[in-house]
Amino acid sequence: MTVPFEQAPPTLGNQYEDDRVLRSYLARVCPAEMLREIEPSLFEMGRLAGGELYQLQLADRLNEPRLTQWDAWGNRVDRIELTPMWRLAERIAVEHGVIATAYERKHGALSRVHQSALAYLFTPSTDIYSCPLAMTDGAARTLLVSGNQELIERAVPHLITREPSEFWTAGQWMTEITGGSDVGLSETIAKAGAGSREFRLYGRKWFTSAISSQIALTLARPEGNPPGGRGLALFYLETRDEQGRPRNIEINRLKDKLGTRKVPTAELTLNGTPAQLVRGTTDGVRNIAPLLNITRLWNGISAVSLMRRGVALAFDYARKRVAFGSTLAEKALHMDTLLGLRAEAEAAFHLAFYVAELTGRSEAGEIDEDDAWLLRLLTPVMKLTTAKQAVSVASEVLESFGGAGYVEDTGLPVLLRDSQVLPIWEGTTNVLALDGLRALGEAESLEPLRSFATRLFETLHNPQFIDLSQIALAAIERAESWLKEARARSRSHVEAGARRFALTLGRAIELALLVRHAQWSQEHEQDQQSTASAQRFARAGVDLI
Ligand code: MFK
Whose CA is nearest to atom 45 of ligand 1? Predict the structure, then answer.
């Protein structure tokens, strides 16, 4: 009798326990007592992410959010029904403090690292519920720095609560049909109410993510203001009244997107929506920038978390799948391919978490001028670099499963579709490359970046690490001399090379951070894996100038 062939699917264990990269990083960065205090929360999130959340995600695969515009009696209701997974994800995120941790600040500046670790574990098993969380976190930060006490008292406690019944999410309504990147073209008008501080907004928002939110921060032009980003003002609005009816907001339709299908993304018409100024009647783009920088951090943390998920599934499957007489894990070429993906993911991890560290120091008021400069530059550089890596890693992960990676009910193709949004939303690669140039301003040199990398390398003594560090430094120096030459030629030469410039900086800093960690891991954990990743990552190419 022949035994029918059975293929075991890939499975996940506790996603914290199994994550060498995260655990080793936290062991280096967190004081021992902090690590002892936060580890239970990470084990628990890792257990959920590898267990019931992952199973529910697979079971919930075909569900999508639904928009009901009219009720049976002809009333316009514009109700959004979320997927079961999203409803559960919200409760878990709130109860486990996936936003709150950053604001309770129990561990000072490192609270952002704790929060980012929770977000990193939570994200890949929750169908991009990280999107509303990112915007909510960004809105809390933006309101807090705005100094608008009335709005801070009204909204922030809801945004950062651990009590699900009190929780509000925030939308970030920026994109209009005139420009997703060139936000200064926005056409929404703000009319001042007679004798009141309240405005009413009129216009069309073209790509509003997670439209189920209770509040939104949005941009509109007060009547009489000049064109461009400076003529826009930043507004706060509440989406529904006490009876749950939309406040003069019509949801025209949900977008039919390539990925992030669980995120209800809508086209809206604002028809006299009541709104309040957050901070002044102009400079909306500048005033919403804190939100952009937080969501860009989330984008990077999501990118590394999706890479990590793909790599975990691919390694597990390699141990189970037999071809040509042995498991894939015993095939030199297959494993070489997977180790290349692991190296990309590990390098990206260190850059994203370094930006989380800097963000935490900035929020805690513990950042000096050089590091504030570094944070402003590395935020777009990190976002664009990790997003590109996520797409490329996801594509290879699917290929590592052969045909199964192309079949929807394995749950694998969604990794690629969802990753593809990462280089698009929150600023495309090119827009962020230009933002990197904006951050540099007229600076003649990359001296603070070079001295940052040099500081990372101060404790290196092993020749193999010194060789790798030279690759990173050489790439930074090459980028610096390219910038000088391009500036001497013309602005258009600088812009044409901005993407190569930014990606070179991103990869160079990834290598630098990975090398620093690899030496620590060898010395403190007797682990060579980060060293192997650093060598592999350096061979894949750092200087893209
Ligand atoms: C999974 C997690 C991911 C999160 C999911 C979120 C889902 C939500 C989906 C979305 O909403 S996607 C829409 C996101 N849209 C964007 O990211 C817009 C992309 N475009 C840009 O970023 C443009 O560069 C920008 C709109 C900012 C250009 O506008 P302007 O009007 O040409 O800007 P300008 O005049 O250069 O800058 C105005 C001020 O803002 C300047 O300061 P000053 O007034 O003091 O000179 C800039 O320095 C400042 N600024 C701009 N970007 C900044 C910034 N400051 C700090 N950080 C930044 N990033």
Answer: 286
Measured distance CA(316)–CA(414) in Å, rounded: 18
Residues with CB under 6 A from ligand 1: 130-131, 134-135, 172, 174-175, 181, 183-184, 209, 229, 283, 285-286, 289, 292-293, 295, 298-299, 302, 425-427, 431, 435, 438
In degrees and rounded to multiples of 5, residue 401 shows phi and psi of -95, 5
Beta partners for residue 408, in sequence order: none
**C-beta neighbour count of 208 within 10 angstroms:** 23
d(C-alpha 16, C-alpha 173), whole Å: 34
Taking only the tens of pLDDT, the chain with its 545 residues reads 678 899 999 999 999 999 999 999 999 999 999 999 999 999 999 999 999 999 999 999 999 999 999 999 999 999 999 999 999 999 999 999 999 999 999 999 999 999 999 999 999 999 999 999 999 999 999 999 999 999 999 999 999 999 999 999 999 999 999 989 999 999 999 999 876 678 999 999 999 998 999 999 999 999 999 999 999 999 999 999 998 899 999 999 999 999 999 999 999 999 999 999 999 999 999 999 999 999 999 999 999 999 999 999 999 999 999 999 999 999 999 999 999 999 999 999 999 999 999 999 999 999 999 999 999 999 999 999 999 999 999 999 999 999 999 999 999 999 999 999 999 999 999 999 999 999 999 887 899 999 999 999 998 888 999 999 999 999 999 999 999 999 999 999 999 999 999 999 999 999 999 999 999 999 999 999 999 999 999 999 999 99
Report the nearest-CA residue for atom 13 of ligand 1: 426
Ligand 1 atom closest to residue 232's alpha carbon, by position in its atom list: 31
CB neighbours (10 Å) of residue 395?
A: 16
Residue nearest to ligand 1 atom 3, measured at CA? 299
Q: 173 near 268, Cβ under 8 Å?
A: yes
* CB 304, CB 155: distance < 8 Å: no
Q: Beta strands 233-238 and 199-208: pairing type?
A: unpaired
| β-sheet bridge partners, residue 238 | 215
Question: What's the 135 CA to ligand 1 centre distance in angstroms?
Answer: 14
Does pTM top 0.85 for this prediction? yes
Helix (H) or strand (E) run with residue 277 in it: strand 266-277
CA 486, CA 470: separation in Å to the nearest integer? 24
Q: Tell the residue nearest (CA) to atom 27 of ligand 1.
A: 285
Q: How many CB atoms lie within 10 A of CB 408?
A: 10
| Amino acid symbol at 409 | D
